Amino acid sequence: MSMISPTMLRNGYRILLDGEVWVVVEFSKMAMGRGRGRVSTKLKHIVSGKVTEKTFRSTEQVEMADAEYRNYQYLYKEIDSYVFMDGETYDQASLLAATVGDAADFLKEGVTVRACVLDGEVIGIELPLKMDFDVIETHDAVKGNTATNVMKDAIIDSGATVKVPLFIKNGDRIRINTETGEYVERV
After folding, report:
1. What is the pLDDT of residues 8-66, one digit of tens each?
2. First vs last C-alpha separation in the chain
3. Which residues contact 67 (CB under 8 A, 6 or more apart)?
4. What's the whole-model pTM score?
5. 90 CB-near residues (< 8 Å, 6+ apart)
6. In angstroms, rounded to a whole number, what is the distance separating the alpha carbons of residues 185 and 165?
7. DSSP for 41-60?
8. CATH superfamily entry for domain 130-186
9. Cβ–Cβ < 8 Å for 16, 1
10. What is the topology classification, in CATH, of domain 3-64?
């Protein structure tokens, strides 16, 4: 593991804090009197997605994570875990439901995800930002209910329930933002 000064941090850098991997989402340097500076960061936890803020003194050292991103394909769900396959080596990895987290709502067989691999072990996944799904079940719009931005529930082919505009019908193909779970557009 390599150590760097916090002043060298950039967006996208992966660092270790308390043995866990965090990604730098934002950073800003603040100069103080007599050469003492601080680096204020927003960090995103690689597994849970939780965002936190941390300030480092310029005299501190930050440990870089030797994590890498690899493409893995989602294969299937077991009782309490999800099975993925490395696209290059064909090695399989089984991740607990807690590790997959909310991404499980949008997993479909065959989808390729970015997996964060640390010391040969998959510690988290990232879905594509936008994915297309088929609407399996939704209710018809109520006549006369034409107010703008009225949304209704729809069940998509991954099994998740999302909010969609009134004009969406059963069988429609829609695009969803996987980070927020929000409807983007009809495909």
Report:
1. 888 778 888 888 888 888 888 887 666 677 888 999 887 777 889 999 888 888 888 87
2. 45
3. 14, 21, 46, 116, 117, 118, 123
4. 0.70
5. none
6. 9
7. EEEEETTT--EEEEEEETTS
8. Nucleic acid-binding proteins (2.40.50.140)
9. yes
10. SH3 type barrels. (2.30.30)
